[in-house]
Amino acid sequence: MGMQVGESKGALADMNVVPLIDILLVLIIIFMVITPLTPKGMDTLVPQPPPKDQQVNPDLENKTVVVQVQLNNKLKINNEDTNWDGLEPRLEMIFKERAEKVAFVKGDDDVLFQEVARAIDLMRSAGIDKVGLITAKIEAGQ
């Protein structure tokens, strides 16, 4: 805190803001360094329904891979029944020759999220780069 003695009305106190500015600059630098280190979640894709008056392209529908997690440890890959042990090798075989490694996972309403997460983990270990999530609203076209 500084003080000025002037000719009129005695002493005049001025606040020294330099230490405050120093503290703010240090805080700004700390937050700039910490921000890139924050944990980031897994990137996901959400399929967009086609417009109502547009028909679905059959070639695109054949390229889309959907893993459906059902009750009682049942799995399907595009309406083909499979099990947990056969999921990863089957996905590796499907995506062996594909350049674009994108697949979707859909869980039934009563399935625990743990089972869906297990399917996502197996899909990632099979070499699928991007895993999308299909929800009931997206499937209904909303």
Concise structural overview:
This protein has 142 residues and is α/β, with parallel strands linked by helices. The protein is 37% helix and 23% strand.
Topology:
Blueprint: E1 2-5, E2 11-14, H1 18-34, E3 44-45, H2 58-63, E4 66-70, E5 74-77, E6 80-82, H3 84-94, E7 102-107, H4 113-125, E8 130-134, H5 136-140
Parallel strand pairs: 3-8, 4-7, 7-8
Antiparallel strand pairs: 1-2, 4-5, 5-6
- Examine the secondary-structure arrangement and name the CATH architecture of the largest domain: 2-Layer Sandwich
Kindly state the percentage of residues in helix.
25-40%
The helix count comes to: 5
**How many domains would you count in the coordinates?**
2
Overall average pLDDT: 79
Distance between the termini: 63 Å
Strand portion, in percent?
A: 15-25%
Q: Which strands sit side by side, in order, in the main sheet? A: 3-8-7-4-5-6
Radius of gyration: 29 Å
Could you please describe the fold and organization of this structure?
This protein has 142 residues and is α/β, with parallel strands linked by helices. The protein has two domains: 2-37, no CATH class; 44-140, Nucleotidyltransferase, domain 5, CATH 3.30.420. The chain is built from five helices and eight strands. It has helices spanning 18-34, 58-63, 84-94, 113-125, 136-140; strands spanning 2-5, 11-14, 44-45, 66-70, 74-77, 80-82, 102-107, 130-134. The strands form two sheets. Strands 3-8-7-4-5-6 form a six-stranded mixed β-sheet. A two-stranded antiparallel sheet has the order 1-2. The chain is elongated. The chain starts with a strand and ends with a helix. The model has no long low-confidence stretch (mean pLDDT 79).
